[in-house]
Fold this sequence. Notes:
Blueprint: E1 4-5, H1 7-14, H2 16-24, H3 32-51, H4 58-67, E2 72-81, E3 86-95, E4 99-106, H5 113-130, E5 135-142, E6 148-153, H6 159-175, H7 187-191
Parallel strand pairs: 1-3, 4-5
Antiparallel strand pairs: 2-3, 3-4, 5-6
Helix pairs in contact: 1-2, 1-5, 1-6, 5-6
Bound molecules: iron/sulfur cluster.
Residues 15, 17-18, 21, 183-184, 189-190, 193, 195-196, 199, 201-202 line the site of iron/sulfur cluster (SF4).
Amino acid sequence: MKLVPISALGTHNYCQCQIILRYIRKMHPGTDKVYDGITAHRLLDTNFIKSADIEDTVDNIITRAKKENTIFCTREIKVRSKEHRLIGRIDEVELHPKKIIIIDDKPNAKAYQSSKLQVTGYCIAFKKNYNIKKDIYAAVRDRDTGVIVWMEKFESNSSLAETVKTSVESILALTAGISKPKPQKDINRCNSCGYLDRCTYREGF
Ligand code: SF4
């Protein structure tokens, strides 16, 4: 793995073994929940495209938001930072005249550490891609209700940003076979895991 998919930060936080199952053994968590999630996500994108009234580049929209003193909203923004070894696609970005809000949509969203790490990863890559001087806020939003359940100003030296950095190093080491994954100790996490029936790391339980 050369670049770490930003969504893998949440996966890694949930359980290191999922990184091997997903990215090395190419197994997908085959739960109904996952497929329902994909469908719900596609619906959000389709509805957004239907209601969108302009088409422009992100760079132009950033300039326009400031110039026209208005808020623009865009979805599915690809980001990539070789320096941080991160790649991903942001659910939604709100471009305000003086700030930017990076939003990750989650089902039954709560302020889980895994969600905070993922959206912090998007902020890092977005800032690098667009050389942003404005304040950036990271937000986790409930996909079904549209309610923001967590929002914090992004700081590149915050403990969340530091954890993203160490998680990226850990994911790269795991996928390169340099380190071995530590199985999840919390049985409740295993019981909710989409790999539960196929996981070979649970033998110790
Ligand atoms: S079943 Fe448990 S140990 Fe296996 S991948 Fe899932 S959370 Fe990790």
